[in-house]
Structures are given as structure tokens and as C-alpha cells.
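Hi everyone, sorry if this is the wrong subforum. Our group has a chain we'd like a structural model of before ordering constructs, and none of us has done structure prediction before. Sequence below.
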Amino acid sequence: MIRTGRVVAAEGDSLRVCFDRPEMCASCGKCGVHGVHQELVTVEGKASAGNWVQVEMPDAQVVKVSLIAYVIPLAGLMIGLVIGQNVLGTDLWAAVLGIALLGAGLLAVRLLDRHLGRKPNWKPRLVKVMEEMPHPLNEEQT
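Answer:
Right subforum, don't worry. Here is the predicted structure as C-alpha cells:
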């Protein structure tokens, strides 16, 4: 997936790129970011603040990241609910263990994100630097 965004900060080989969220995200609301129509991503490369850039993230990695982000915490919640209800026998323990293992799953996702973020094939890659705004803005390409 290639997306076009604007460099908002450049420090050495690190760029902070701002992307407008795709229109399909406006009606979804699943990520919990209501009212926010932009996202910031750090990309390695050379450009100046204000430049427009094209950034690529391999489609397979996008799908894997989505699975990791949703499945691990959900699995923790479900395992906690099952253990709490079937082993400890009460709804209170099911809720407590479910929430605890959900939190552990979220922590695991965060740690895994840090680990995978250091691998080159999991990082967004700068494809092209442009001086002026492209038309149409943020057109997704495959």
C-alpha cells in the first residue's frame, strides 16, 4: 500500500509524516479515534518539512499488524473469562481474570510492536519525495 503524506518534521534521517485518514475510516469509528482525521508516522529517509512524500507499507505486513493488534488482547480476554468461570467458578473471577489477561495482551502487543518495529521489512519505506502537493491527495495505490 502506498500513501501520500506531508512531512511535518525532519530530524536527521527520521521524518514525521502526516497522512489524512482514508474516507472509509470516517464512518467506521472502530479504532476509537473520533474526530481525528490525520495520523502521524515516523519514516526513515531524507526530506524537508513541508515536502510531500509517498510512503509504502507492504500489504501483507498491514494485515499481520491488524491481526496481532486484535487477536492477542481478545484471546487474553477470552482465556481469562473461561478460566475464571470454569476453574474458579464465579462471574466475579471471570471478569477479573478477563480484564487482567486483556491488559496483559495489550502489553504483549506493545512489546511485540517495539520488537517488530526494529525489523526493516516491518517499517514503512519512503518511496518518493515531491516538492508540491500531488493530485488527488492521499490516493491509495497498490
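For your construct planning: Strands lie at 2-11, 14-20, 38-44, 52-56, 125-130. Residues 59-122 form one domain.
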